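Cont'd.
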Amino acid sequence: MKKQMMIKGSVAALVAAGVLATAAYASGSLTVVSWGGAYQEAQRNTIFKPYADKTGAAVKEEEYTGEIAKIRAMVESGTVSWDVISVDTPTALQGCDEGVLEELDYSRIVDKSKILPGAALDCAIGSDVYATIFAYNTTKFQEGPKTIADFFDLEKFPGKRGMQKNPMNNLEWALIADGVEKDKVYEVLGTPEGVDRAFAKLDTIKSQVVWWEAGAQPPQWLADGEVVMSTAWNGRIANAIKEGAPLQIVWDAQAPDLDMWAIAKGTPNIDAAYDFIAFASTPEVQSALAPSIPYGPTHLDAVALVEPELAKTLPTHPDNLALAYPFSAEFWGDNMEELRARLNTWLAQ
Amino acid sequence: MSVTTFDLVQSSLKARLRRAERMQRLRAGLLVLPLFLFVLLVFLVPIVILMTRAVDNPEIADNLPRTIEALAEWDGTDLPGEPVFAAFAEDLRETQKTKNTGLVGKRLNYEISGARSKSLQAGRAAEKMESGPYKEAFLALDPLWGKTETWSAIKRAGSPTTSFYLLKAVDLQWSPAGEIEQVPPDQRLFVDIFIRTLGISTLVTLATLLLGFPLAYILATLPPRHSNILLIFVLLPFWTSLLVRTTAWVVVLQTEGPINNLLLWLGLTDEPLQLIFSRFGTVVAMTHIQLPFTLLPIYSVMKTISPSYVRAARSLGAGPFRAFWTVYFPQTVPGIAAGCLLTFILCLGYYITPALVGGPSDQMISYFVALYTNRELNWGQASALGAVLLCATLILYAVYNRLVGIDKMKLG
Amino acid sequence: MGTSTDPFVVFSDVQKTYDGEILVVKNLNLTIERGEFLTLLGPSGSGKTTTLMMLAGFEVPTHGRIEIDKVEVNNVAPHKRNIGMVFQNYALFPHMTVEENLAFPLQVRKVPKSEIAAKVERALDMVQMPAMGKRRPAQLSGGQQQRVALARALVFDPKLVLMDEPLGALDKQLREHMQIEIKHIHERLGVTIVYVTHDQSEALTMSDRVAVFNDGIIQQLARPADLYERPENSFVAQFIGENNRLNGKVTSIGNGACTVAIEGQGQVAATPISVRDAGSPTTLSLRPERVRINPEAGQYPNQFEAEVQELIYLGDHTRCRVSVLGNANFIVKVPNAEGVPAMSPGQKVRVAWKAEDCRALDAF
């Protein structure tokens, strides 16, 4: 029982305590927080180290898994030890609304007009473009799936599928696979009938779906043969392919999204934080990331600096971008709670 | 005279005794003080925080004070009048400055899906509203502000404490008419999850008991040389982290893992069984992890049971089974009670194992507590779920106490 | 008792080993008469408890056969032997009341309920514990628990009752009291009792016969008085009561008498028990109370010079340690009667004893 209550009861207290502990030795250097794994390693080589070399400033790295809860706990307790944080779009919007992220002064970073439309938010600036796509194991099919409709086609492509345990993207894909135009998705999903329709489509493959929560799971499952195809983040699949896994990315109905730089509200190192983000947002630095991990740049001038062969593997490549549907972070800001509850209820049935 | 002297001596003796005892108590108190403070700080305080978080409702009350005050008079039948809208506009202008509009929107979004973006929009609009009439301005802005339900939701959410989270934790909500009702069927989740949590915990507890009891018996009756080696195998799981053990089960149970390969090779099955991402996998992995917790109390109680009891029963004419069942087994009940309670309560809090080995219909309540804490940032809901689980656990504990008797429980 | 011939329990050539190497019980032959109180006495590890456990059925003999009432029981399970047993730690079931404990063997035997109540009551009366039936064992004193254990072993009227050091945990006074009580119960019920103890005075007090165990062998099986007065080997002489030992060699033997030379000290006249030939080594056994100090000359064949080492006053007698014939730990019990001379340490005295009281046994 004790353990039980410790887990449940002291979440807030423990988060705060952890923050206090890290705060003790964080001052004096710039602390950058990112998502760990191959992504952070690529950032280390192409951004953190060059920045430290150039300015002589010490960059201290931390990892997290995108929990806005940690940022909020720091800001609320006034012990901000994270300076620059890599966030996803929903977190950037939510963090801005809730006042836990600093509102950005673009004059201190970059010419806003040079940034991909939609990538320059009030409290965060896009650092790179990744995509949620689906991929399949090439040893399982003679002729692989080509479209998102194939993902939902159990007859032509039998076998288990991996999907993220999250209504986001999945409901859109269900509707697109069901014949909804890509740019009408949110119109349909905004109505109760549309939600029913999306879930009805999901019903058709429910028995064959395995649900993932960590980005490392899909490439692992695909390689192990646990699933024959899975939704995933394109960088994770690209890395697995590089390591020799027989996987293939399908770009149809890809959902491009942004990784973004944000500054925790109330950090004492705000000047250094701006300096770092400005450095990271230059075309040269941005274009250097893609060779390490196939995420596209957000600075328009950087696009041209990426090798043409490499550019084809990026979500931002015109061929790939043409297949994308227009993802709406705003829609999910409003409807995440309800649709997640609906998904969880549906899953539990 | 002599009586007085006697009394005097007597009373001073008592005083001295009291003083001596007080010193002793003080010293004993000092010794347990660190533990007391520790428990207070990391156990009792978090529970109190948890309980308050579950009913705490500051977002609207703090940020829309004027609106709430203006709504106090409103009877809820028709759309509120201009003063309410004016107060709302003023409050929103204030929240735009303090950057709290998002918080207000998020809180309203719990009550009315979609209210978040509309609130942000209204906040931006309010900054530009120079003067009234505000009512028309808001009505023109979005139909949301023209619904009476919106305003009764704001009024309801404006109370500094709320039953919203706790009700939601048991799939209930306030209807627009102000009555408690069930949430719509496609949102009903937590009652099932609580039942599932209790069900899986019960199953795992029974499985550990069925596996652990005979093993404990063997351990307790073997000569120490052999039993120590066996005990090491039992305790081995304790030496590796929970995550490692769970991941090992993922490897073992997966579709192309060793168990399925063996079954296919033996021809016992034509296609791989769904062992992982299933209730079966969850219960197996949890049973493995919990086995020592059930086994050890039983083992240590069995160690204290002299073999002469069973011998006595046999010599008195009882057969082996009867001697075991009527004489040995009842004496192990305190250990069984302790081990099972320990495992059951630990199981209630399982999170990682069902998340990695279980399917979507095997997630337990902790999964949702973590979800609301880390992802949704809805600590009120997370706390409410925790509070309900805590209450359910306490009730079960009370029932258990009635049935078994906690004072009879022995850990060794 | 020795004259009756109604064998109830018979051990024939019984051997027991646990590890296949060492025999814990070596070739045991033992006949227990019906209604007899037989004690197995010996130091720990002597095989007495193993013998009891084989009789109870908890251990299986490695070799040989055990009969109870003319039926071989080697392969009869313990619960089918109808033997009452009292354990060292009483083994009262802690989760049952006294009544439930007593009712247990009766319920197992499917005795009707009304009869059970009556029998339980009678058994409690027998051990003088009426009105204690509702208590649990933990609420009883050691002595009371012992009585309940005794009552439980007797309540189903077994023909044979085994007791494994049942009084070991009691204090001396209570133990002596219980010894008498058990003896009375035995006399009243006429049940056969096999009793294991390492306490020789307990064995002597209670038993009809005592089997002295050592090293897996019965050293002597005899009535208590014979055991004390006429030990047949050095182990028994030493184990039962107090004993003076003198090691020597037989110089002459014949006509129920012998002479033993104590090396470099002198010749002792003794009674040969387990010596056959002149020249064989022997240990002389002599009870301390059979030695006289400064007797009138010529009355005793053995008279030796001794020096008083230590005197311990014990009320009715004085324990006198002297050195004689090279033995510095020679004990003499001097009764505190009229006419006994006062002594002091260092004093030279003469000690004397009869040849009949000095038994020449196997060399120890």
